[in-house]
Amino acid sequence: MDSSIMWSMSEMGDVPTPKQIAAMTPGQRKVYENRIRRMADRQLLKLKRSRRRDPRAYDFGQYQLIDSDGNIVAGSQLSDIHAFLVKRPE
Question: What is the SS3 assignment for 31?
Answer without folding.
Answer: helix
